[in-house]
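step=encode ok
step=design start
structure_in=
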């Protein structure tokens, strides 16, 4: 019971931070109304957060005819920050977000071969840690997004079909860079991207969303009633290896018929006869440019869209999302892939167009997963697990 007052103080501070993040700036009186906390409590906590550099004041506002005007408060820029990384087959990336959700900086580094991914992550983590120190930015935590399954401890990689990253090595590499012990989390990349699109991108205002990655692998992040749906073991959303692709298509996992073998980046390149040229988004942008003058390329992309829409029809029939967001390499292809996918989805949904979820492209690009990982790193602040008043 000795730490009960400290726990209550953290929860109250988190309530103020959440409403400032999601509902915007407010005076102390408005914060009391929003949170249900006593005005004196709001005043004490807000004063402590201002002193710590977490909040800052805006212009003075008058709440009524009489009395002194009240100062509106907002989240300060840059303190603290959450750090998100993504590890993928062809690149590693990092995004640093402040409490408002604004990116302080983003870095993407291509990786020449799969065997070099772990070393590339370690080098990127060292680079980010050094830059944060140079810019006096205080990281409260870090998370790494990757295309695979992660154990319930949020650190141990169970299965990455296109990468060799077993165990806790990923988390430990980032911990070393920041001088931490067992602080870095590891999260599925589609879950991270779904979180980012719901909070900061194409899914804002949507409580039921299916996000589909588009890189070499295919995975899904599922948001149900505003919360990530992870399943009993945290493995929900591993749709890329459902047997809903072309029966004879060989997948990177060693099996045939997996969905990603028909709609992943390598399937696209095989369909249009184009070689990889940089990141998945850069490669897809090149495909889109060639499609402007080549009917064969347009037809190849359309076939990918058809396979995509059929699979989405099956997954949507189970999950009933309000919105589907396509991320990764699908975004530069735009209507080239969106239109055939929507047509197949219409045909697959039992109620036709009336029952089809909205289908749109992601807004956060290649950095969606790393952005979501940074959001995940900040969640402990908004839940009251991290004390910013000490």
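sequence_out=
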């Amino acid at each position: 019971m000795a730490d009960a007052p400290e726990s209550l103080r953290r929860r109250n501070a988190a309530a103020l931070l959440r409403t400032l993040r999601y509902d915007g700036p407010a005076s102390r009186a408005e914060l009391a109304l929003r949170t249900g906390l006593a005005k004196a409590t709001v005043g004490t906590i807000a004063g402590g957060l201002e002193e710590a550099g977490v909040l800052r004041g805006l212009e003075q506002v008058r709440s009524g005819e009489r009395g002194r005007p009240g100062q509106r408060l907002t989240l300060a820029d840059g303190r603290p920050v959450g750090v998100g990384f993504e590890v993928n087959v062809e690149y590693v990336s990092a995004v640093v977000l402040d409490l408002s959700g604004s990116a302080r900086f983003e870095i993407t580094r291509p990786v020449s071969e799969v065997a070099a991914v772990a070393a590339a992550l370690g080098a990127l983590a060292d680079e980010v840690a050094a830059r944060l120190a140079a810019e006096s930015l205080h990281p409260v935590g870090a998370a790494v997004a990757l295309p695979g399954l992660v154990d319930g401890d949020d650190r141990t990689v169970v299965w990455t079909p296109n990468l060799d990253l077993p165990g806790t090595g990923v988390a430990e590499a980032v911990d070393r860079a920041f001088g931490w012990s067992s602080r870095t989390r590891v999260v599925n990349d589609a879950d991270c991207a779904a979180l980012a699109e719901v909070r900061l991108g194409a899914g804002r205002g949507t409580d039921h969303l299916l996000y589909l990655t588009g890189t070499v692998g295919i995975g899904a992040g599922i948001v149900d009633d505003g919360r990530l749906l992870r399943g009993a073991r945290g493995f929900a959303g591993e749709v890329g290896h459902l047997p809903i692709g072309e029966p004879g298509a060989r997948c990177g996992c060693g099996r045939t018929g997996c969905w990603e073998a028909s709609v992943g980046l390598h399937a696209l390149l095989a369909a249009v006869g184009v070689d990889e040229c940089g990141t998945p988004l850069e490669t897809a942008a090149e495909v889109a440019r060639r499609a402007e003058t080549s009917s064969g390329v347009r037809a190849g992309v359309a076939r990918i869209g058809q396979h995509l829409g059929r699979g989405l029809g099956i997954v949507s029939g189970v999950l009933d999302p309000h919105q589907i967001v396509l991320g990764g390499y699908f975004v530069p292809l735009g209507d080239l892939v969106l239109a055939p996918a929507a047509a197949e989805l219409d045909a697959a949904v039992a109620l036709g167009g009336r029952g089809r979820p909205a289908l749109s492209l992601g807004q956060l690009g290649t950095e969606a997963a790393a952005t979501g990982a940074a959001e995940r790193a900040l969640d402990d602040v908004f839940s009251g697990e991290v004390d910013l008043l000490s």
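step=design ok
step=annotate ok -> The longest strand covers residues 91-98.
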